[in-house]
Design brief:
The complex is a heterodimer. Chain A is mainly beta. Chain A has 3 helices and 18 strands. Chain A folds into 2 domains: 53 residues, no CATH class; 128 residues, Thiol:disulfide interchange protein DsbD, N-terminal domain (Immunoglobulin-like, Sandwich). Chain A is 10% helix and 44% strand. In chain A, strands 5, 6, 7, 9, 12 and 15 form a 6-stranded mixed sheet that branches. The relative contact order of chain A is 0.14. Chain B is an alpha+beta fold. Helices cover 36% and strands 12% of the residues of chain B. Chain B has a two-stranded antiparallel sheet. The chains are: A mainly beta, B alpha+beta.
Amino acid sequence: MAAISYDSREILAEFAQKYSIGYPLLSDRASEVIRGFGILNQNMAPELRSYGVPHPVEYLISPEGVVVRKYFVPNYQHRVTASTVAFEEFGETAGDAPAVTLASGALRAQIGLASPSAFAGQQVSFFARFRLEPGWHIAPPSIVFDSPELLRQEVTFPEPEIMSFPVLNESLPVHSGSFEGRGSLLLRFPLPDGGLILRGSLSFQLCSETVCEPPQTLPFELPLTLEPFLKT
Amino acid sequence: MSSYTFRDLAEKTAAMREFRRLRDAGLPIPAEVRDRHVAATNDGYATGPEPGERVPDFALPDQTGAMRTREELTGPSGLFLVFHRSADW
């Protein structure tokens, strides 16, 4: 991992020390590499101190130098967390990341965050793992967070299979066995530092080949620590 | 955000300056001023090479003054490269 900005080496050295950053912070004083990538922000007039900044983009680059994936969010106040990338690219979650287990009848679900902490404005990943007892199925479930600290949320599940239910005289898209959904939460900016409880709910309907249970909604909570920005 | 259009760089600069003036004075920032500022700073958002495309090679000094190249920074899984605005402000 490495980061590039137009700051001087001295500023980067101070920043690295202040935040205990171990990875290289590269100094692109003349914004040449920023231009080379085609991401110079051309909205900044030469007299502004922000003249020469890039549009914020993050790339995962293969050993051969080819872009594998890139991350960007639509404005400067929002960034993707490192844990999001580790999670999305490599399936890694931090060992101390919060998770809850929900169970009802034939369903067990574990919902958790990729990381226990984040900064305001960042995007945090979550996962939702489901296990159904044999013979049971659910339509694609819904997971909704209703915390006001969130600006945006999304979750995706694997492609469901279409199954026919003779008792219902209907074919429905369902999941069976074990499957995992993944989602992301975009935190607002700014937010006060400290502990935050993300409240959400999981809604689903369990069906076997002979019976469909009533739809259920299970509430859950996940704690997230908002880290303080050192600068004011 | 896309509902704001700017004739030229001067208009964008004015939008950014108005936002900064209120913020630096600790005054309340009307939503319209904030939105115009955000729109001005993000106009023409460019995200560079697409997945599958090669990135330019580079050599830049790091915070210790050592020159670093893309190739040398790359590990077995590749390189995660972050472009950010500034560490200073």
